[in-house]
Amino acid sequence: MTSPRVLSLNALSKRFGSVVANDAVSLDLHRGEVLALLGENGAGKTTLMNMLFGHYMPDSGGIDVYENGQPQPLTLGHPQAALAAGIGMVHQHFALAENLTALDNISLGSEPLFALRRSRDRVRAKVQGIMDRSGLNAPLNVPVGHLSVGERQRVEILKALYHDARILVLDEPTAVLTPQEADALFDNIGAMTRDGLSVIFISHKLREVLAFSHRIAVLRHGVKVGEMVTADADERAIARMMVGADTPVTAREPMRPGAPVLTLADVTVTARSARDSLQNANLTVHAHEVLGIAGVSGNGQSALAGVISGLLRPTGGSISVDGRTIAHPDPLAMIGAGVGRIPEDRHHDGIVGSMSVAENMVIERLDDPQVQRHGLLNRDAIAQNGQALSQSYDVRGPGIESPARLLSGGNIQKLILARVFEQSPRLILANQPTRGLDMGAAAEVGRRLLAARARGAGVLLISEDLDEILGLADRIVVIHDGKLVEVATRDREEIGLKMAGEPA
Amino acid sequence: MIRIEPRNAPTRLLTLGVPVLSALVALALAAVPLAFAGADVAAAYGEMVNGVFGSVFAFSEMLTRATPLIFTGLAAALAFRARLWNIGAEGQLYLGAMAAVAIGAGAVDAPGIVLVPLIVVLGAAAGAAGMAVPTLLKTRFGADEVVTTLLLNFVILIFVQMMLEGALKDPMGLGWPQSAPILDQGMLPTLIERMRVHSGLVIALIAAGVAQFMLARSVWGFRLRAVGENAAAARHAGIRVNRTLFSVAVVSGGLAGLAGVSEVAGLKGYLTADLSPGFGYTGIVVAMLAGLSPAGVVIAALFIASVFVGADSMSRAIGVSSYLADLVVSMSLLCVLIGGFFARFKLVRSGRVAA
Q: Where are the transmembrane segments (chain B) (predicted)?
């Protein structure tokens, strides 16, 4: 790379208690470069970026930002300093005020607190300029709460660019995007890098890393284990570098589908916004079958998942599980009917963070005589169950009696899997089950779903990761604008067009 | 430069240490106004200790004062654990007291073995109803229970005053706004002869024990904790959130009602509009000091009661206003809130780290 350096991280180390999150990690970034930062969950990618952005204070090491070719040491531990040095970060979990418009979110924090008159026109003109140059488009006058995940992400990036970021860090930017949206995002990134922006993006997805980055750095257990120019890299080598071994491939045996386990007949959900609605949805999931729901986020997936998990009462239509119509769908009725639910937001809906791992493992079966007798908890049985499930599902953490929130994202998902699969559900609703998980954990989820299918369960897999759906699903239904359409093809392009609402 | 970082999990030492330290700091801070009042601080504190531990009578007075605080403290602690903000224990206390005199002051003439349980159960039921209504308004219409329970306190108090001038007024009371006394056999028996401490204390301690046990060991307690700590996940897991909140409301209101029963049927014998010097509100401080743990409520109630009784004795002995007690109580709430912050976060010194 001949272009000048803009950033160098010098031997950054960070420990959390006894855990070494980063051990002397050094990294260089050049002007106009896209650097992919790869690694499994817990490899230390996010910690490294949080030190760069001043959220964490490194235990040792330093950061230089280059100003006209001269290295300037960055004041560590101060997000303000990082911002001033032109470093912008877009986190996996967006930091946007939902009740403010996109425009206000973008200018938030850059205006003087006691300005007499807000120069909105100037802000708008600057944002419009950035949108025109980069191709990133987002509706500016709509409250962020009404925007899709993809749009919110663009608002976050616009916000960073509005603050004159020269270095942009994206933490798993495509986790929530369709292939086309992801491709568009990388196109935009391409346009921006030609303008001189340098980008670091954190990802698990090898395909996009290989397609869009210039250089790749791989972290494992807090140590940088490899760095290479993307043109010379191949998928297998990187995967091996990330996990330290060849990745297991999930093999999907062909299977003859059995009787229907879930039937939605003309299910309609009327909501204020189209993204939470469902229009006359008809759907059948059979035993021994994985049905994949592909779609751009915010096209009715949450309504569909809400109905099947019992959280949302449909305004019309009927739901039957195993041939029996559910008269009053609520979470208890759905659990009782044999529906296992893996929620989209595992922190918010999946666990009670301050309750113990063991308690979270029985939270869906409090009426089970194994868990309670005469209204009193059977604590021995709960502990034994927790111990057994932690072992068979490899839930790692500080112990079954410690609060579930202390587990990492991957281990929280394993806790939920254990809770769901242990009840041998007839139908499994898996809503974005691998979002934010590393390759190893994601492969484990896929294996478990296929094992349930082999056992005779039906699986409804809602995912925005088309690769995941192509890998796991027997049939694919595209959801767009609250409507379901089954597709016969397995061609990425064609499915992608359907997801975008184009008639094929 | 100092930064604030969250702690992973508050240690046991911190959870226990913060309230104890808060109480001590609040007592120490009270020395400042004491000194300004021109009192000999050491003598004043000595008098306070003496006023609580100086004699069996002094100690029994402290226990008498702690009894309603245990009830209202439990009422607040259980509700707050479920994130149900019951600020209305004061009003529910009066509802319980009103039910106690309505039944006990002659309306039902039965032997004590029938009358006492009847008074206790109906008093608790009245308090429970007082919390059930705002909770239904919350779950049905989304009315903020902080506002409704708080304002109901004043509505109920005025209602009590109306009743004391009307239906419940003692015909033998020489025109004073007070109810007729509860029949002798309807009174909760005293525990020690010639002292005021009564069996309401026993009921309070049993209630605390049962609450502690139910919270940790029962399915009801599991549901309560799950709803309080993450209602969305509880709902997703099939727990009926509104039903759980309603059951918590009934228990919380019932406990507050028992505070009123115990004051009327254990101590005063009749109802006046100044029955409670704010036991309902002080119960919130007790619950916060206790870290919302029922067992802790007992200890916190004993502490707060000691402060009140000790301050009374101090004011009698050296003429310092007993309002000092209110000062200590409010400062211990502030201290425990500040202390709670330090239990959840740690301060980290930061600066440039040498490479």
A: 53-80, 92-108, 114-134, 146-164, 197-216, 245-267, 279-311, 323-343
The CATH number linked to B68 is 1.10.3470
Q: Does residue B352 surpass a pLDDT of 50?
A: no
User: Are B230 and A406 within 8 A, CB to CB?
Assistant: no
Instruction: Please compute Rg for chain B using Cα positions.
Output: 22
Same domain, A403 and A265: no
Q: Residue A366's closest chain B neighbor by CA?
A: B219
- Residues of A whose CB is below 8 A from B348: 57
A366 lies in the same domain as A409: yes
- A-proximal residues of B, 34-93, CB under 8 Å: none
Within this chain, do residues A381 and A359 fall inside the same structural domain, yes or no? Answer: yes
Decide which of A183, A213, A243 is a domain's last residue: A243
* Interchain CB distance below 8 Å, A366 and B217: no
Question: Tens of pLDDT along B305-340?
Answer: 998 898 888 888 888 777 877 888 788 778 878 887
Enclosing domain of residue B238: 2-349
Q: CA of A170, closest CA in chain B: separation in Å?
A: 23
| DSSP assignment of A286-298 | ETTEEEEEE--TT
Q: How far apart are the first and last CA of chain A?
A: 42
User: Are A195 and A287 part of one and the same domain?
Assistant: no
Q: In chain A, what is the greatest distance between 2 CA atoms, to the nearest angstrom?
A: 74
Domain hosting A255: range is: 249-338+423-504
Coil vs helix vs strand at B294: helix
* Joined tokens for residue B214: 């139910």
Do A416 and A443 lie in a common domain? no
Give the CA count within 13 Å in the CB-facing half-sphere of A83. 11
Domain assignment present for residue A50? The answer is: yes
Residue B355 forms part of a structural domain: no
CATH number at residue A300: 3.40.50.300
A218, A243, A268 — which closes off a domain?
A243
Round to the nearest angstrom and report the end-to-end CA distance of chain B.
18
Give domain status of residue B186, yes or no.
yes
pLDDT of residue B222 exceeding 90, the answer is yes
Q: Is A346 within a domain?
A: no
- B interface mutation test: which of A332, A335, A352 has the most B CBs within 10 A? A352
Shortest Cα distance, chain A CAs vs residue B213, angstroms = 10
Which is more confident, B266 or A466?
Answer: B266
Residues 6+ away with beta carbon under 8 Å from A345? none
Is the residue at A348 inside a domain?
no
Residues of chain A in contact with residue B355, where contact means CB-CB under 8 angstroms, are 10-11, 60-62
Question: Are B239 and A335 within 8 A, CB to CB?
Answer: no
Based on the domain organization, do A202 and A266 belong to the same domain? Answer: no
Tokens (6 digits) for A32 = 């106009």
Instruction: Check CB contact of B151 with chain A, cutoff 8 Å.
Output: no
Domain assignment present for residue A239? The answer is: yes
Check if the beta carbon of residue B224 is closer than 8 Å to that of residue B244.
yes
Residues B76-134 pLDDT 10s: 999 999 999 999 999 999 999 999 999 998 888 889 899 999 999 999 999 999 999 99
B73 with B283: CB under 8 angstroms?
yes
- Strands (E) in A17-56, as ranges, are 19-30, 34-38
- Let me know whether A278 and A366 are in one domain: no
ipTM entry? 0.86
Closest in A60, A351, A379 to B355, CB measured: A60
pLDDT for the residue A292? 95
What does residue A47 show for φ and ψ, rounded to 5 degrees? -60, -45
Short-list A335, A343, A340, A365, CA closest to A285: A340
Distance CA A200, CA B271 (A): 73
Same domain, A116 and A15: yes
Whether B293 maps to a domain, the answer reads yes
Q: What share of chain A is helix, strand, coil (3-state, %, to 5)?
A: 35, 25, 40
Domain count, chain B: 1
